[in-house]
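Task: fold both queries, return tokens.
Query 1:
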Amino acid sequence: MGVPSITMTLASARPRPVTAQVTSGRRVGGARPVRRRDYRRGVPDDASPATESTLASSRALLGIVARSLVPALAEVTVPQFRVLVVLSQGGTSRMGDLAERIGVHPSTLTRTVERLEHGGWIARAAVPENRREVRVGLTPAGSRLVATVTERRRAMIAEVIDAMAPADREALRVGMEAFARVAGEPYAADLLELGI
């Protein structure tokens, strides 16, 4: 019995529209109306210089994130590093809670935790009152690895910011605070592959 072949034309391989909610227009009841934008078309007609500048800055920041991870990737994978980051921010956690925060299935997390524990990055312990409940936390080595990457990233960002004029640094601070406030926190699954 042969292996069936799959033939796909360009028309059938075309991706479905990718849309995102974008706020614009008059305020109604304190909120802005939401319109949909199709990002397949490239740069939207109404792209502003602020949008293009933010896009360029996001690429620069992503480069810094990638370079800051280099020391960690000699030791752990990006998804494993994400587990370490979440534990460093939230402290010791139940396995189920950690899986939810990271956005993975508990069985996937169990395999990841086993590898991290074997490497000496985290420690697992049963809860005395409930032996079925397992808590995980960073070891000193795990804490040092996260701190190393974080400090490396902070230094790389500071180097760029230090090269800016004082007025530009203040404008950046104000702009980034406003952007973060409006954009909100990213979903855990969005950050998982980036190790942030």
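Query 1 returned. Query 2:
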Amino acid sequence: MRLKNVLLAFLIVILSLLSFSPSHVLASCAPAVSLAEYKDQADIVVLGQVTSISDTSAIVNVELYFKGHGGPSQIEVTGQESKGAVTSVDFTFEENRKYLLFLKMDSGNLKTNACMGNKEVSDALTSEDLAVLGTGYSPSGNTQDLSSSEGSERQPSNPNINFMLVTGGLLILGVVAVSWKKLQKKR
């Protein structure tokens, strides 16, 4: 009977920990770096206007590529740093706004965050910005989304799903084992 109580308490603790995962995570950016350093750290640098926004991403019509030239005229970018959690470094897009975006390729998806040097551009880039970035290149003209790559599967929206499935399976096995042992003692 004592083993049963210990096992039940253990299972309750594990389920409690799994069901109360944080939805907000605090993080902070390292000290600001120069525009040249932001460009060096990025895989792709674009100037573009946000045309639509979903819960986790934005569609951007690219005007110029400053790094990674020859890309499509329309890209999908996520500003969410961590799937399943809101962080203080998430980059929030606003529709119909123009941005200079510093992007990273991550498993076939274009990502950015508030620490990568992105900035809203009201009309045109300043001469200081252009001195660092260069003149830029026009997009290739196609509307292929860089974030989709053949053969790559999207990850589930909750990165802990596999852990929760395994733990749930172990929980069910534990309950079955205790019940079976109890039935064996009655016989």
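Both queries returned. Flag for query 2: Residues 144-159 have pLDDT under 50 and may be disordered.
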